[in-house]
Amino acid sequence: MIAHSSEIDTFREGEVLVTDMTDPDWEPIMKIAGAIVTNQGGRTCHAAIVSRELGVPCVIGTGTGTRALARTDAVTIDCSEGRGKVYEGILRYRVDEVALKNVPRPRTRIMINVGIPDEAFIKGQIPNDGVGLAREEFIINSYIGIHPMALIEYDRLKERATGDPRIARVVRAIDKRTEAYEDKRQFYVDNLAMGIAKIGAGFFPNDVIVRFSDFKTNEYANLVGGYLYEPVESNPMIGWRGASRYYDERFKPAFGMECDAIKLVRNDMGLVNVKVMVPFCRTPREGRKVIEVMREFGLVQGENGLEVYMMCEVPSNVTLADEFADVFDGFSIGSNDLTQLMLGIDRDSETLSKISDERDESVMRVVKKTIDFAHSHKPPRKVGICGQAPSDFPEFAEYLVQCGIDSMSLNSDVVLRTRIRVADLEMLGLADS
User: Fold this and answer.
1) CA atoms within 13 A on the CB side of 170
2) Do 46 and 109 lie in a common domain?
3) What is the CA radius of gyration of the chain?
4) Which helix (H) or strand (E) holds 256?
5) Residue 262: partners with Cβ closer than 8 Å, 6 or more residues away
6) Could you tell me which of 175, 191, 180 has the C-alpha nearest to residue 143?
7) Which pLDDT value is given to residue 166?
8) How far apart are CA 231 and CA 366, in angstroms?
9) Per-residue pLDDT averaged across 3-22, rounded?
């Protein structure tokens, strides 16, 4: 039982982490946990997303987990049936093995979601068609931990530190993490590139689609020095995030470092299988501005085969799909955000979590419309999906196949069975040709 991430030293590898809720500061503990149980959270909360990436069984939103397990010495966590269960004591279990040579390869590309680079070479051994979503946020949290603007303005912060104890603490924290770097900006570029390159190499030569940073303001504020640069928003989920940051002068230099990291991976390391994706792009005009800013930083769409995809997660992305298709090379449906905006629900709200369901008819219809719009465009645009829905709901994955989706990017634990199921559907002629 741990109440705060500062108690990390008391946690031993293989133990079950039981706590109220997690945030990025908990990730070192989560990486060595045998399982995770939290009081708070929903299917798209931090604990749920990170545990899926790590392959660690996790039961979230128990309400009373810390109290119920306070005096329990041993438990078994079972997440094999979709709904997590906690059993008292150590239960016996079986291991099912799959002969990889017998796993079929369907027409629909079955890709993998990857955020933690250290897992890339292991996950790359699973039969796959590449990575449909590589999240920069995990790399920034784990490898960097410092707000990018604090690194860019390091010299200015150092000058201010003399008269401000809070800024002095920020400078000391930066110095500790970047000791080997005189150029603090290069620390960010090198470490971000290193994380991206691990994923790119782990899945080479298959495509690896890297999503540019999609931290919300409250998440950026949690990085070292972040409070100096981030506004306080009442609802960060629909605030200053994604594409709107990249061309904003308050963040544009930081986005430039992301572009430099991609150039380092593609041009210097030769991992041209790495492509990029723009999240939360609200209008076609905004999309064109991002493409232009990328060009300013030397990251040019089409150059050396660079493709630029867009996350389809805002209703305007669907209604104006034909115009967005003129800007981007393809789409990846983010079912988590698309669902919350279609239904008007904050996906971090536990109170409304039972209403938030990707299988709602409104969501299903806009998914189909997106695929139809993209495929009818001249030239046709590919459409994938990288949200949680096809990983959690087999029937949703089947619907996507029937709609003719080009690819699905899934959590690694469901890749094999989804691949087999999709191949069966295609063989039965249930897929849209």
Assistant:
1) 30
2) no
3) 22
4) helix 252-263
5) 193, 196, 210, 274, 276, 299
6) 191
7) 95
8) 33
9) 83
Select from 430, 432, 412, 335 the least CA-distant residue to 110: 412
pLDDT tens, residue by residue, 239-297: 999 999 999 999 999 999 999 999 999 999 999 999 999 999 999 999 999 999 999 99
The tens digit of pLDDT for each residue in 83-133 reads 788 998 988 888 888 888 888 889 999 999 998 898 899 999 999 999 999
CATH number of residue 232's parent domain? 3.20.20.60
Q: Give kind and range of the element (H or E) at residue 365.
A: helix 361-376
Alpha-carbon distances, residue 360 vs 26, 202, 332, 396 (angstroms): 33, 36, 19, 10
DSSP state of 174: H
pLDDT tens digits along 195-221: 999 999 999 999 999 999 999 999 999
Q: For tokens 């002068």, what's the residue?
A: 249
Positions marked active-site = 46, 386
Distance, CA of 288 to CA of 56 (rounded, Å): 40
Contact status, residue 132 vs residue 411, Cβ threshold 8 Å: no
Residue-level length of the chain: 433
The number of folded domains in the chain is 2
Residue with tokens 């020095």: 225
The two tokens of residue 346 are 């904050």
* Amino acid 48: pLDDT: 80
Pairing of strands 85-88, 75-78: antiparallel
Q: Are 152 and 78 found together in one domain?
A: no
User: Residues 348, 201: one domain?
Assistant: yes
Query: Residue 114 forms beta bridges with which residues?
Result: 134
Retrieve residue 341's tokens. Answer: 């905006």
DSSP string, 118-177: GGHHHHTTSS-S-EEEEEHHHHIIIII-B-HHHHHTHHHHHHHGGG-HHHHHHHHHHHHH
- Residue 113: name the closest of 46, 201, 209, 213 by CA: 209
How far apart, in whole angstroms, are the C-alpha atoms of residue 333 and residue 337? 9
Residue carrying the six token digits 């593609």? 266
Q: Which domain holds residue 35?
A: 5-88
Q: Please tell me whether residues 127 and 237 are part of one structural domain.
A: yes
Query: Is residue 429's pLDDT more than 70?
Result: yes
**pTM as predicted:** 0.88
Six-digit token string for 157:
């912060």
